[in-house]
Every structure is written in structure tokens, then in C-alpha cells.
Specification:
alpha+beta; Nucleotidyltransferase, domain 5; 3 domains; five-stranded mixed beta sheet; three-stranded antiparallel beta sheet; Transposase
Amino acid sequence: MQEAPRVVTSPEALDELEREIRGRTDRLSSLLLGLHLQYSLDSEDFKAEQDLLVSQWPKPLKNDGRVPVWVRTLGGHLVPVWVTYYRRKGQRRKGKRYPGLYAGLVLLGIHDRCTPALGAEISLLAAMLGSLDEARDVLAQRGVSLDVKTLRLIAYRYAARARVAQQIESAALDDTVSGRRVVISTDGGRIRLRETQRGPKTTKGRRRYTGAWREPKVLIIYVVDAQGKREASFSPVIDAPLKGPDAVFALLRTYLQQLGITQADQVLFIADGAPWIWKRVPQLVQALGLGAEQVDEWLDFSHAAEHLGKVAALRKDWSAKARSRWRTQQRRCLLRGEIERVIAAVRNLCRGRNSKAIGAPRDYLIKNQSRMAYAKLTAMKMPIGSGAIESSVRRVVNLRLKGASIFWCRASAEAILLLRSYYKAGRWNLLKRMASSHLALLEA
């Protein structure tokens, strides 16, 4: 192509030429990668590492000889390599290979016959885009032709390996919060899970299911500067496990320990008034060994103001202007730290036909009274709102997993939540490191 330049006279012709050149160079890069792969697999030092991995494997393995394996590269091309296969010890049936592993490929992070770069690219697109169909179309434009079923398998296994590696703490966070001011928040999102329903199958032989709403708990850890603004140099930690509150706080504890939270200058817990959050915060503080002078607990200001709005809305005998004036006045009192005055104003309205309805927001304010000294928080130049966690719920959960007629299997939802959390937090490289680690397979 270099010796015989082609004349292009239109954008379409140029586009076709560029794609043709890219296809050829991708093919060349794949062949070169295959050459390097084979050279690495044949080296004596690497063979010693394979033997070490086999000796550490949970099940006894036996060398079954070298076999050809086709590996798909980032450019979408398949290249053959000869690699040693280790199978489970036992009688081998004719034409059947017992479960085992390609130790060399595992050490190189090659899973599901994909290079680490391609596996990461597929998983990233599955997290970024609105569906796996869109991911398939984008990959097809890049010359990688895979069906949706294969993409799903690769992306979900990628997330599963990363989660296992995270649980065994083999990939600690690179950052530290030593000498910094840390803000921690958590909240719940909403997705619909496809759960099998007991009973007879449909006329088409399919199992019945229910689409129950479930609440993935989203957590975020970020750092603010002396002015209360989020530090751009520290990528936030975001995760969204589809489990109960205890599992979420256990995960939060792991993250905070990896960040060295005891060395932080100030730690702020801020969230809405959900009881499942605040009854576990003291236990978490004690487990982490944080001092009382380091920790503050605050109720999100917008949620407190929202309850004031509910009280004003129940006063049907007031005009709209009067309700707005009362609400604004009480909000200002909250910001000045006059919480007793606000509670007294709400109590004065607890009479008449709406007294019972007004009693709910009144009790909410009384219960969280100790977490509403916003004047102190403003003086410290710390956030008084939980906008960070609300935004995380929207970006991680709502924009990808929540929608009309969208139902998820639990395992699929957990995979996408993990991938999307790390992508939105700007910690994709950490996820790649966890998913490529062979330690996850040793623990599986």
C-alpha cells in the first residue's frame, strides 16, 4: 500500500482507506503480540512461575501437555499460541478434558481467551454504555466482532474476579487520607430484580418471575480542601453492592482501613435520616479506632429542609405565600444553628386535624437534633449537603440500571454496579489490576 499510493476524492473513500489501513495494522500488531506471547510462554523463568502457580492451586493438577489455544487480541484478531494445559488428576475419558487451567495464560491475565486489554475494553464499554447491544456495535466499528452473549460472559466474569480480589484485599488503594479532611456518605438506589417465582411454568414452558424493587446501597468517600471543595487530586471511592446494610458497612470499613483513615484530620459522616445508617456509624467508628474529636455526624441539610416543606404544605389554611415565608424562615434558623427554635415552631403547628401528620416530621427533627448544628459545620467549611452521594446514585444506578421494563438478574446487576462504580470514580486502572490478578482464582 505504501508503494502504490491510492488517490481518494471523497470523504467516503478516505474513510474506507483509513479503515482498511487500520485493519491491516491491527492484524500485524496481533501477529506480533502472538510472537511475544509464545516467546514468553516458552521461557524457562516463566515456566518456573507456572509450576509455582500449579503447586498453589486448590485442587491437585497434572500436566496434560501442550495444546494450541486461540487468543483474541485488542484488535479483534485471533492468534494461536501453544500453552501447557494442567487438568485435574483422575482418569481421563476419551475425547473429554477434565477441568483444569492454562497456567501460563492465567499468569498473563488472559481469561476467556481474551488479552487483558480486550477484556478491560469490553467491560468498560459494558459499564459506560446503555446496554450490551451498544457495546457490541461500538466494538464492531473497531473491528472486534463478538455477539452479546460472549460480551456478557466476559464482562460479568471480569467483574466477579475483581470483586473476589477486592475481598481478599490483594489490591489495596494507592491513595492515603493522611492529614486530609474526609467526607463519607451512603444512600440507597432502586432497581428491579428478576426473581424466580414458585409455581407452574407458563404455556411456553418458561419460569415465572417477579420484578421486585431492590435497593443497592451506594457509598462514597471523598476528600475536601480547606475551603470545603472536593479535592480533584483524590479520586473518590465509590461502590454499590447489592447487599444488606451490614455488608455495605463492612465494605466501607475495608476501604477506610486501606486509606489509613485514622491518620485523617477530620472525618465527616453525612447522610439522610435513614436509621440503618446512623445506628451503624458508631460501630464503624469504634471498629476503625477513630477518636471522638476526629468524627462528626451530620444530617443532610436538604433532607431537613424537605421535612420543613412537608410541615408547611400541611397547613391548608395558609396561603402559598405564607407557607413559603414560614419555610424560608425556618431554613434560615437551621443554617444559624437555632434547631431548638425550629422544633418549637413545628410543635406549635401540631394541632388540629393535621397534628398527627405534622408529628412525623417533628419527630424526625427531634431524633436528628444532634446532627443539625449547621452553623458549626459552615464555620468548619465542610459540606452541609449530601449532593455527592445523590449524584453517585444517579450516575451509577439510575442512568444504567433503572428504567421502564428493565429487570436484572442479581448476578448481572452486581457485575454492572461494580464496573460502573469504579468507572465513575475514576479508578478503572485499579479495577483492571484486581480483575487481572490470578489470586482471585486461587480463592475461588
